[in-house]
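Postdoc handover notes: sequence design on the structure in folder B. Input tokens:
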């Protein structure tokens, strides 16, 4: 706010020489305080020099916007894209550490691939941050606003048997599916594809430009524009929950595919017996099972409305110019939100996983069918890039669950970067998120479906420590 007031009474600041400015959209600024690292563990020793050469070439020649600098100029956040990359304006920061030894050691965290139970389980998240981020990696929005700081920071830690790759950027720069676009293009280049055959993104791509006009829409669906008194009430209740359960903890949640398949078979048979032609998918069942597990621990008289949000990829919606999908690669943020109608907490105690999954599926189908509604949400977000809306009513609670599974990080193939003579495939065996912020941003209620392997789907979920203990005592899921 102060920067905007200052800019009103001062001469506009021009962009730095050699930089082309592109304003950030409202979609870029939705989680602007977060710095996100996509952490990949690959089951081979990779050549860090080849990794650096190929990712640098890819950004410079096909995705120059990825190599932008983030700036706050004249009160507006923008990407500043170098007109030319070089020693003084590199396309990214690349750091590497090499350990000429196997990873497995009693002093290093164990990668949780040994679990093979047929029922869902919860396990601690190993502290692998130092293998995904260098000591110099920016960990806050302010650090990315330092002049001439490239958006991507890639850190590689190489062992004889596995390689860690961390791709870090301000959340203003990328969402998970934007990161997917960059990484899948990177592995194509690593594995020998001609760079000229790899689709890229123009430095001046602005697919949301047509949504920047005036709009009569007052808010995005499922989000709340609370008045001053109601905002204070929201904050007071949120702080009270933090006071009652102050320690925030992240856990890995592993859900076997056989468990989901059996659940889906039973749910679909019940729907058929009821004469219903409706259906639910495994993702609906996964989320229904998780939220039932969380909120079934509440008291039977707890009717707190629970507002569940699922980020949704706009790139594949027919909402852009000419009522078409985006159609071309786009690495910056292009995600909106599907909000499930609020569910009283005590409903999760009584309602089956199938019924909850059906609620979720109906919400998604209704959202996808309402193209004018999607466009209205987009108009509001673009017209109000810095306006804060609340994810639930003042008397409610919220849960936001992202789906990294759609980014297919576990399918990336780094075989072309194996050190000479290793003669093996190099596949992603695990995906980890690392999140930081210059502000103390409570993450409880947030989660992400990280990946799937041959046997299970893995999630990262954040709750209060006492909340986790209630889940443990309920006996509905095994804690390892």
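Designed sequence:
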């Amino acid at each position: 706010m102060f920067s905007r007031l200052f800019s009103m009474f001062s001469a506009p600041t021009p962009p730095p020489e050699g930089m082309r400015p592109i304003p950030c959209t409202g979609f870029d600024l939705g989680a602007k305080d977060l710095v996100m690292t996509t952490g990949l563990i690959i089951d081979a020793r990779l050549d860090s020099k080849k990794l650096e050469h190929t990712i640098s070439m890819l950004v410079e020649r096909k995705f120059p916007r990825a190599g932008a600098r983030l700036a706050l100029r004249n009160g507006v956040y923008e990407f500043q894209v170098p007109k030319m990359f070089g020693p003084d304006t590199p396309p990214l920061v690349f750091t590497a550490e090499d350990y000429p030894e196997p990873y497995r050691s009693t002093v290093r965290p164990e990668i949780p691939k040994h679990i093979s139970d047929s029922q869902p389980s919860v396990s601690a998240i190993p502290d692998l941050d130092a293998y995904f981020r260098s000591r110099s990696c920016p960990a806050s929005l302010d650090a990315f606003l330092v002049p001439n700081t490239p958006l991507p920071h890639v850190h590689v830690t190489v062992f004889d048997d596995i390689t860690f790759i961390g791709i870090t950027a301000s959340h203003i720069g990328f969402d998970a599916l934007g990161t997917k676009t960059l990484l899948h293009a990177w592995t194509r280049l690593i594995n020998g594809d001609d760079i000229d055959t790899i689709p890229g993104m123009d430095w001046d791509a602005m697919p949301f430009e047509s949504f920047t006009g005036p709009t009569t829409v007052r808010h995005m669906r499922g989000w709340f524009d609370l008045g001053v008194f109601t905002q204070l009430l929201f904050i007071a209740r949120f702080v009270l929950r933090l006071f009652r359960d102050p320690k925030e903890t992240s856990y890995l949640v592993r859900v076997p595919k056989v468990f989901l398949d059996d659940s889906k078979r039973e749910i679909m048979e019940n729907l058929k017996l009821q004469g219903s032609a409706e259906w639910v998918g495994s993702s609906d069942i996964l989320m229904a099972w998780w939220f039932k597990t969380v909120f079934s621990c509440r008291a039977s008289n707890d009717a707190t409305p629970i507002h569940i949000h699922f980020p949704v990829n706009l790139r594949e919606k027919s909402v852009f110019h000419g009522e078409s999908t985006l159609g071309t690669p786009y690495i910056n943020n292009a995600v909106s939100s599907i909000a499930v109608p609020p569910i009283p907490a005590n409903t999760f105690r009584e309602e089956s996983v199938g019924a909850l999954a059906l609620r979720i599926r109906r919400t998604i189908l209704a959202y996808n069918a309402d193209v004018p509604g999607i466009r209205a949400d987009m108009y509001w977000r673009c017209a109000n890039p810095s306006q804060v809306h609340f994810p639930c009513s003042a008397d409610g609670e919220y849960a936001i669950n992202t789906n990294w599974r759609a980014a297919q990080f576990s399918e990336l193939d780094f075989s072309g970067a194996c050190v000479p003579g290793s003669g093996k495939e190099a596949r992603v065996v695990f995906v980890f998120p690392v999140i930081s912020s210059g502000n103390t941003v409570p993450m409880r209620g947030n989660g992400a479906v990280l990946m799937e392997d041959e046997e299970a789907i893995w999630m990262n979920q954040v709750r209060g420590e006492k909340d986790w203990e209630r889940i443990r005592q309920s006996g509905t899921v095994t804690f390892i």
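Context for whoever picks this up: The mean pLDDT is 92. Don't rerun without checking with the PI first.
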